[in-house]
Amino acid sequence: MRMADVYYSWSNEEEEIKCHEMLISLDPINQYKALAPDEVNPYDSAGDIYTLMGEYKLAVQNYERAIAINENFLDAYMSLGHVYLHSGKYKKALQMYQQFLTRATNQYERSAGYFMLGQTYSILENYEKAQQSYEKALDENAFRLTSFDLLHDIYFMSNDSVKYNELLQNSYNRLKTLLTSETQRDRALGSIAWLSLFQNVNIAETMEIFKLAIKELEQSKNPVAALYLTNLKFILTLLYGKMEQYEKIDPLWVDQEIIPSELWRFLRDVQNNSYSDNWTFYGLLNTLFYNFPEHGFDFYQPLIQYAKENQAQSIEMMFRVFLADLYRAVKDTVNLNAQVKLIGIPDEKNWLVIGPFDYKDGFRKKYPPEKKIKLNKTYKEKSWQIKWQHADDGMEDGFINFKEIFERDHWKVAYGLIYIDSPDEREVQFRFGSDDGSKVWLNNQEIWKLNRMDPAIFDDNKKTVILKKGYNKVLIKVLNTVGDWGFFFRVTDENGIGIKDVRFVVADENFN
Q1: Which residue of 144, 190, 266, 509 has the fewest CB atoms within a 10 Å radius of its CB?
Q2: Residue ranges per domain, the chain?
Q3: Which residue, 394, 408, 321, 411, is CA-closest to 88?
């Protein structure tokens, strides 16, 4: 289990899964139980492993055994709720989350319980109770900003945008009161920035808050101030760009390197570049660079060079993705194609996607694309129809963003389809990351599955595969609960460098 944790921290989920499979084959429950017969951990850990692999029945048995040993073991109630929710047993999920809440001991636990109740009620289309639950989650924890995405849908479904905007304003004001807290000030600043950048709340006021914070920090003698100052200026730069106040950006960086040595050290230690965290902010930055591409080239080139020198390849490729997007914006096809080949990433429009399918027991359920690809067929799903379409999400940032492609996105399932044309049989690596769980097929053979509720991380998973000569079909299934939804995917050699003589091809009915 400890080895699995280490591999997880290194984003090597292929080896992590091998550890989990070894654990199962060793019958860890009986061995662990013999060492610690009165502990909940053997059963809770086994439940987690079985959940990751989609073995829900065995997961339930182990979580229930943990509760039998200790009826106040909170994690088991939450985990049981998740298993029932994923398997479509919604009433049982409600019972588990409610039992979790009756045993919760602090505001953060209560917020998590109410949030999961809200998700379950939403699936059951009891939007009144869902709304109440999400609002309670925010009352207990002002930083649970994901609630806004879900409340947005509920309020706009009832044409009550006024109340939604009031809720945003109240949350903004509440976060402002936390700016005086030594322990919560930094987190409150980040949350206020999120509300302004992504929900358009009080942008001018947020600018003033950040200008004041920058002024205070510039006068500080704190030895770690330089890195934090860069972070604050980065956010203020995005706010200026959002308001098209471009003339205020250059003066912000006078007498300071855009990329100081403190930031280099930070970047060196970054392991995971998730879409939820870093990616969206750099995407915003690139929309600013569209107006000033030379600034963008000057920004990314030293970052790429530093990453190469420090053997931080996933960071190097991450910045190459955004550099390629800038070359695309200025129509420099030569440099664009060179970057894309080096990264090993398809043009997003080469993907065909289909969805959203209803989630119920989505990880185990076989939807039509898993049975037979019919590119010209339209499917009826509850009250809507779906068909294959090109993956146009509005931004070429390497992430197939289902949230921008599909109108319905909470608790849904979708697929991506592409072909790889190889001149010969060869060994390559698939590098991918998804939000949330995923399955991957190569030429109709399942090569990957993991049922994890996590953000999509660039290069999170690595799988060595054999491409046959000619066309190779790649099908990816991605499940979503709430929030961001989609996947990264690239094809490389064992060193993570794109392979020049393989091509990504849009699926065609004749290939099937």
Answers
A1: 509
A2: 2-158, 178-343, 349-511
A3: 411
d(CA 418, CA 434): 16
Q: Each residue of 412-449: pLDDT tens digit?
A: 999 999 999 999 999 999 999 998 889 999 999 999 99
| Beta-sheet strand order (sheet of 399-401) | 399-401, 486-492, 426-435, 461-467
**Spans in the chain with pLDDT lower than 50:** 260
**CB–CB of 194/214 below 8 Å?**
no
pLDDT per position as a tens digit, 219-238: 876 666 666 787 888 899 99
**Domain 2-158 has what CATH class?**
mainly alpha
The structure's pTM equals: 0.83
β-pairing verdict for 389-390 and 426-435: unpaired
Query: Which residues partner with 379 through β-bridges?
Result: 386
- Residue length of the chain: 512
In CATH terms, 349-511 corresponds, of 1.25.40, 2.60.120, 1.20.1070, 2.60.40, to: 2.60.120
Cα separation of 399 and 393, whole Å? 9
Buried b (16+ CB within 10 A) or exposed e, 146-156: bbbbbbebbbe
